[in-house]
Amino acid sequence: MDATADRPWTRSYAPGVPATIAEQTGSLVDLLTDAARRFGPRVALDFFGATTTYAELDAQVARAAEALRRLGVQRGDRVALVLPNCPQHVVAFYAVLRLGAVVVEHNPLYTAQELEHQLTDHAARVAVVWDKVAPLIRGRGSVETVVAVDLSSALPRLKRWALRLPVPKARAARAAMTAPAPGALSWAHLVDAAGPLAADHPAPAADDIALLQYTGGTTGTPKGAILSHRNLRANAAQGRAWVPGLRDGEETVYAVLPLFHAYGLTLCLTFSVSIGATLVLFPRFDLDQVLDAVRRRPPTFLPAVPPIYERLATAARKRGVDLTSVRYAISGAMALPPATVELWESVTGGLLVEGYGMTETSPITLGNPVSPARRPGTVGVPFPSTEIRIVDPEDPSRDRAPGEAGELLVRGPQVFAGYWQRPEETAAVLLPDGWLRTGDVVTMDPDGFVTVVDRIKELIITGGFNVYPSEVEDALRRVPGVRDAAAVGLPGERGGEEVVAAVVLDDDASTDPEAVRAGCRQHLAGYKVPRQVVVVADLPRSQIGKVLRREVRDRLLAER
């Protein structure tokens, strides 16, 4: 009997990719301990040229864990991290885990109101934060102790000295990196004063909670996804298995994605450590900083999003910067245009493949094979040890016929345990037999390649017909003069919803809203054509570049 009969996608795997991964029995802390043992002298972190070896990183984590223990952090406690990408972020992440405590990642660019909700929800008493945002944290939620991190202290000595020059440019650069944090403790002072954590301090177990990752901000109130050490280790192992050409202890990974996001966290904080890679850290994506780093320490593996690939490839070609060191690139979080794949691969000679995931799955569940078998335009096939079903969104017990669109369900070792203190919302997405409802409408071809049609929660229902926003947006972008677009449903004059589009025009475009609607009629049924087109200067996006349709809808409603 064909062992792949129920999993046709395994026939499309790149050579050497297994159908399953081994069960993960250790913790994330073990990944770092093992990397320090195997690759101690190797550079683990590079921050604008300042380097930290794996042996040094392991030692810093031990001291930071002891410093946090002295602040009263115990097993099971939540500790808030509100940090951009920097060496201190990596150290704090593993130090919290070493104590058996739970990391809660936060976006340092959030407003006080957004932070207030999350800090209240998880009730962390200790927060390790970027000193520039420390005033937003103190006194919010249950936070009693704020530990401030000065990003500039991690810079190379010469760069630190340059920031202190009495010239406007140096003052502006310093102000962008650090600020006084009255009332907060100093991270550097706490760690320097601490000895290493006792070796016999109880270590976390595989099924302990490692991370609360907040999600749902585009569809409702953010809620904390509970991810265990086993979940996150499994996804790192799946990622490692997916790219058999990687060489442990020899790769260089660029952290241009934020570590506080599920995508950046797994690909950079856990996966990279699991293969003993050098992680080059960027506080934010800055084209000039990335190109400077390419000359200093060329990347070999790059996880990013489509706009970053397009901008980086275009700039590298224009400036004559060599990107051929990048053998593998993984794209996620939004659709990857085939034109971007063609551009990137023509500049680098490496492969760019698209993946699919969500915070609740640690986050990756599907990916295009890292081989000529990849299919641009799809999100690929299930990862090793991952099962999928396509079902009726109204009745997930009923499977759709082959080729028919339906809701994607996934099951595997990377699937989360539920939402923090939200049993009803957990029950709504996590079925009793372990299947997770993704809320995404997809189709699957006979070879197991999946194409995302749209999100159920963003479905527009007009005149009794279902309209998928991405279908409308694809048609809008095909209209000459339209650079970008977002389609949402707004209340109609006669009840129900009507399709409304926000569009960004090219700088020199003379296109008017009626011309845009006329262009859409060439590609869409009449009920799908936007009833109204609003020209905007830009579209709101998440930290990793995804258009936030909910915010677009709110803005359009406010203008009405």
Note down, in words, how this protein is organized.
By secondary structure, the protein is an alpha/beta fold. Among the domains are: 52-204, Rossmann fold; 459-559, ANL, C-terminal domain (GMP Synthetase, Chain A, domain 3), CATH 3.30.300.30. 32% of the residues lie in helices and 24% in strands. It is built from 17 helices and 26 strands. Strands 7-6-5-3-4-8-9 form a seven-stranded mixed beta sheet, with helices on both faces. Strands 12-13-14-15-16 form a five-stranded mixed beta sheet, with helices on both faces. A five-stranded antiparallel beta sheet has the order 18-17-19-20-21. Strand 10, helix 10 and strand 11 (278-281) form a beta-alpha-beta unit. The chain is globular and about 70 Å long. The model has no long low-confidence stretch (mean pLDDT 93).
